[in-house]
Design goal:
two-stranded antiparallel sheet, nine-stranded mixed sheet, Rossmann fold, globular, 13 strands, single chain
Length: 273
């Protein structure tokens, strides 16, 4: 169902990627320049709604619900390989976005997917904005499997996050919904650990093989990316800029939305996109 953001209609759409149906939000805008937004684990495209609204005038803004998240289907056999995530982006660009090169903003999981897509399909990418994720990743999402399928109340659901040690309660709570069974997550809880295990590792080869402009945004208080790695990523790769938000953690776009919007706009103006 379309809904309005300022003077633009935001429309939910669907497309086929391999054997699953994926969903995305088309935030509108008639520009040939496409800004593709990729969320992190346990989230969906709506996490970028405020950010998207600020770009609709000059861009066509698209927010993908990545496989196993939001309104997209959960893949059979927990297929959360690097190749599948990247192919989903390729299928979206080819079938829905006119086949032209896009500019990608990716947070966490979405950031890795963005720079790996740029490494494999450079002709489809103008620039990449990577929010708070590194190239050496060693994290554990197995605690997600302990979360209940449904909770009796929103309060109880938030308490379940606290019990398993989640610190970013508000971030995780963005993807909840209610139905006749209670409150739950729009995320494939049984598949997230597999997705995280597949993203763990060292991805320096992908990072260094890209040639497009990349803007790395780092939250100084992040528990995911440390300052040393962020600085090394920029120093080792040409055509790369770093912006550190001293008072933010992992989710800069939600913790300082105006600041995030400001630096992304400045970067895009600098690289003439």
């Amino acid at each position: 169902m379309p809904h309005s953001t300022d003077n633009y209609l935001v429309t939910r759409k669907y497309f086929q990627s391999g054997d699953i149906t994926l969903s995305y939000l088309d935030y509108g805008g008639e520009s040939p320049n496409v800004l593709l937004l990729l969320h992190g684990h346990m989230n969906d495209a709506r996490t970028f709604s405020t950010f998207a609204a600020a770009f609709q005038k000059d861009w066509r803004v698209i927010g993908l619900d990545q496989r196993g998240h939001g309104w997209s289907e959960h893949p059979p056999e927990k297929d959360y390989t690097r190749e599948s995530y990247v192919n989903d982006i390729l299928n979206l660009v080819r079938s829905e976005l006119g086949g032209g090169p896009v500019t990608i903003v990716g947070h966490s999981l979405g950031g890795v997917n963005a720079f790996q897509f740029a490494a494999r399909y450079p002709e489809w990418v103008k620039a990449v904005i990577v929010e708070d994720i590194g190239v050496e990743i060693f994290a554990d999402l197995s605690f997600v499997e302990q979360l209940p399928e449904r909770s009796a109340s929103l309060k109880e659901l938030r308490e379940s996050l606290e019990r398993v040690g989640v610190r970013a309660i508000d971030y995780f709570s963005e993807s909840v919904f209610a139905d006749e069974k209670g409150w739950g997550f729009r995320t494939d809880l049984k598949g997230m650990n597999s997705s995280q295990q597949n993203i763990n590792g060292s991805w320096w080869e992908d990072w260094l093989s890209t040639s497009c402009p990349i803007f790395l945004i780092h939250g100084k208080k992040s528990f995911v990316l440390d300052a040393n790695q962020a600085e090394l990523m920029v120093s080792r790769r040409p055509n790369t800029k770093l912006e550190t938000f001293e008072q933010c953690g992992h989710g800069v776009h939600s913790e300082d939305p105006k600041g995030f919007e400001r630096v992304v706009k400045a970067f895009l103006a600098q690289v003439n996109i």
